[in-house]
Structure prediction request, 244 residues.
Amino acid sequence: MTESQNLHRVAVITGASSGIGAATARTLHAEGYLVALLARRRDRIESIAAELGEGAIAIQADVTDRAAVVTAAQQVQAELGGADVLVNNAGIMLLGPFSSEQRTDYRNMIEVNLLGAITTTEVFLEQIKEGGGDIVNISSVAGRTARATNGVYAATKWGMNGWSESLRQELLPDVRVTVIEPGVVDTELPTHITHETTRQAVQQGYDVATVRPEEVAEIIAFALNRPRHLVLNEILLRPADQLG
Ligand code: NDP
Prediction:
């Protein structure tokens, strides 16, 4: 799709204050989308929206707070005319050995990474359906390969993958659901790890990360711009006794 074909398509990006979300907001805006940047750090999203200029708005919203997400959806409807694309990107990766000491981390990861995406999707769904839109869920390689010390983070991403596949089948042909599974990307993700020795070890890996968030943003834009072969998908998903 060209820049002009994206004009007036509205993309809502959660976790747009840094890393992959900020890069996605910049990339989609450059491709002609109107963008709504959602995150908790108001100063960060306001500064990115100001840098982008016309067609970009910042909305402070914590994805674990449904009332805030509902208010955000109302603002997107009123100011941009409703969402066509939702990028569920907000996430935290609080790695460490499994132990009761990390139990708050576990709850937080499930509430942000999994429930946050589910809540944001159910709140925005009617807007997205209206325009025949897209949902892009940012999962991870940890959604397919679990390792020691990443169990609950991996569980949130495995959960996201299962939920996304069900949603993908259910929402066709109105809405296309896409899952993106990055590996190590150079962002501030590891800086929030509360288990000190794990944070230091993981940070070492991130210090030599070669994938930039802009590259993931390009993949997201590429996926959104692909033609939608929904008729074929619909036929393939019909129960076998209805085929042929
Ligand atoms: P960042 O830490 O840079 O970005 C995370 C974003 O999530 C921030 O904008 C943060 O904004 C937001 N966020 C966190 N908690 C909440 C909340 N409760 N409500 C709303 N927003 C929230 O890391 P990345 O860019 O790397 O992470 C983006 C996504 O990519 C995550 O889902 C992550 O799991 C996934 N991913 C990242 C990989 C990597 O190696 N970097 C690899 C695979 C997947 P704020 O604090 O302002 O609210």
